[in-house]
Model the fold of this input.
Amino acid sequence: MKRLHRLFCALLALCAIGSLPAFAHKASDSYLVLNVNGQEVTGQWDIALRDIDFAIGLDANGDGDITWGEVSARHADIDAWAMGRLSLARGADCTLRVVEHLVDTHTDGAYAVLRMTGSCPAGSQPLAVKYRLLFDIDQLHRGLLRLDLDGVAHSAVLAPDTGVLEVKAGETSRLAQFGQYLVEGIWHIWIGFDHILFLLALLLPAVLVHSVSSFNGARRWAGVGSFRAALTEVLWVVTAFTVAHSITLTLAAL
Done:
């Protein structure tokens, strides 16, 4: 048994030494902030440079490094591409234009920052938001919206099936927003192979019990005694993983 244990440890060490670096996946997101007060509209839109490069091409010399010069040379193209995929309406279509370009660094790389201004025909009607950035080439893309409509804060995740949103002035539903983020979180875990593999690594030993024989001191692993005990262990592991991941995402967002 001791020889088997030493052999197992040696194999684990060899696997660790020979393994390649692993990186957690990062889904494609953009961050849209809109402030609508009556007819006046201001906002900011952060879009990953890698996403813009994928859609319209930014790396002019093909060296794999996107410079400010390459970005600034394509400002007009970036504006036309992005603003053609976002529209607002309040009473009728709102005008919206980019007034400033910046670059910001997020945890997953550089983002183009588009600062916008505009106006709507009406100042008291519901606001309609139509978002379709990257949906034609990446169905997993999400737009994270933070909207201030006449002093009332709203948030939403804009996906291919939820990219059209209508918000009434003074109306907000925390429960509906929580439900949407819950669904998106479950889908985020499901499509992330790193999450699934990590859960499997946690679940495989969760149904095993390590024991030491009182007769000869031999150590061994054995399955849990019942399905109920196994289910309890699995639920604890999955719940702990979900709560921990939620905490880290919340800290990152704040």
User: Anything to note?
Assistant: The mean pLDDT is 82. Residues 50 and 218 are 55 Å apart (CA to CA). The first strand starts at residue 29 and ends at 37. The longest helix spans residues 227-253.
